[in-house]
Amino acid sequence: MDASPPGALGLPRSRRIKQGRDFARAKAQGQRLAQGCLILNWVTLPPGTPSRLGVITGRRIGPAVIRTRARRLLREAFRLHQTQLSRAVDVVLVARPSIAGKGFGGVAEDFVTALKKVRLYREESNSPKAEDSKPNAE
């Protein structure tokens, strides 16, 4: 049912964790890292399985408007960086109260930093920055 082009960075419902047992599995069997405004919980999946995302925002974050914004920011950070995941994982992101004052840049930075710390982030080997820094062999 996914009508998006192959290269599109979508996040359809099939790539979201919705069932309580999946959240509980990530908490019980998975690993955990707190970084900035979020807590990253993850469980490694078999190869070939698509990575999925679950988001938790508790009432400590603030009123419903703040919690909804926090969920949107966390989903967007995952959506934009999902192709950089080094292996298939179920990711559960828990928003911390400090997310209330952050913009997207700060949330995405915390997310990428957390992925790098746990070695789930795959660096691009052909990035333009790496090519620009090479000296010319003329």
Which SSEs are present, and which pair or pack?
Blueprint: H1 20-29, E1 31-35, E2 38-44, E3 52-56, H2 64-81, E4 89-95, H3 104-117, H4 128-132
Helix pairs in contact: 2-3
What this model shows, in words?
- The chain is an alpha+beta fold and 138 residues long.
- The protein has one domain (14-120): Ribosomal Protein S5, domain 2 (2-Layer Sandwich), CATH 3.30.230.10.
- It has four helices and four strands; from the N terminus they run αβββαβαα.
- The protein has helices at 20-29, 64-81, 104-117, 128-132; strands at residues 31-35, 38-44, 52-56, 89-95.
- The protein has a four-stranded mixed β-sheet, with helices on both faces.
- Strand 1 and strand 2 (38-44) form a beta hairpin.
- The longest helix is centred in the middle third of the chain and has 18 residues, at 64-81.
- The radius of gyration is 16 Å and the shape is globular.
- The N and C termini lie far apart (52 Å).
Alpha-beta content class: alpha+beta
CATH fold topology: Ribosomal Protein S5, domain 2
Secondary-structure element string: HEEEHEHH
Shape label: globular
What key attributes describe this structure?
138 residues, alpha+beta, Ribosomal Protein S5, domain 2, four-stranded mixed beta sheet, 17% strand, globular
Short description:
By secondary structure, this protein is α+β, with helices and mostly antiparallel strands. It is built from four helices and four strands; from the N terminus they run H-E-E-E-H-E-H-H.
